[in-house]
Write a structure and sequence with these properties.
With 212 residues, the chain is an all-alpha fold. The protein is built from nine helices and no strands. Keywords: DNA-binding, Transcription, Transcription regulation.
């Protein structure tokens, strides 16, 4: 899971561990049922922390579940980052994001279920894959690789298509996820301005593997 600066002393370490345990429990609940009505007692028991510890970290369940979604989105972005190091072509980065996401249904199912159920409200979030995708779109536009005029608008189209891929991958495990991801990535790259042959070639390049 995403981490911040390491705590400086034992108290801070324990406090950080308790908070992360609560976030992890909330993530599990979101991935399993999507039900945010679980009681604080239920969440605390799943996290294996005392009931009173909850209010040392969060004012409400809403705040906790928001933190859980943010945590999942950031881990999602970090997983993609680890795989695409060394890729400079913004078109290949966009395509790799789609193709790796499809494979994460097997390697990181919890993240994908949270993304499917909660991702729409976070397409323009400052955490997760969104700021990374926006950066790649801006670079692609500035370099002439993409011909669309507005990176933020393009991100809306890209994000919506990616969420559709996530839903398809989770709801139809019988489909070839790699092929579906490549096809959708190809459509997105053509929308961004790539020629058909170029978009097809980019989306069929060798893809780095995912760490489990």
């Amino acid at each position: 899971m995403p981490t911040s600066a390491p705590p400086k002393n034992r108290f801070e370490r324990r406090r950080a561990e308790t908070r992360q345990a609560l976030v992890r429990a909330a993530r599990q609940i979101l991935a399993e049922t999507g039900d945010t009505s679980a009681s604080i007692q239920t969440i605390a028991e799943r996290a294996d922390v005392g009931f009173g510890s909850f209010y040392n970290h969060f004012e409400s369940k809403t705040e906790l579940f928001d933190a859980a979604v943010t945590d999942a989105l950031e881990e999602f972005g970090q997983v993609i980052d680890a795989c695409v190091q060394g890729i400079d072509d913004p078109a290949e980065l966009v395509a790799a994001g789609f193709r790796l996401t499809a494979r994460m249904a097997d390697s990181h199912p919890e993240l994908l279920r949270i993304l499917r159920d909660r991702g729409l409200a976070h397409i323009h979030s400052d955490r997760g894959l969104s700021p990374r995708a926006l950066r790649d779109l801006e670079i692609g536009i500035a370099s002439g690789r993409f011909t669309c005029g507005n990176a933020t608008t393009a991100l809306s189209a890209l994000g919506g298509t990616l969420l559709s891929l996530v839903a398809l991958r989770l709801d139809r495990p019988d489909l070839d996820g790699d092929e579906a991801a490549s096809d959708l990535a190809e459509m997105v790259l053509r929308m961004l301005g790539l020629a058909a042959d170029d978009a097809h070639e980019v989306t069929r390049r060798p893809l780095p593997g995912l760490a489990r």
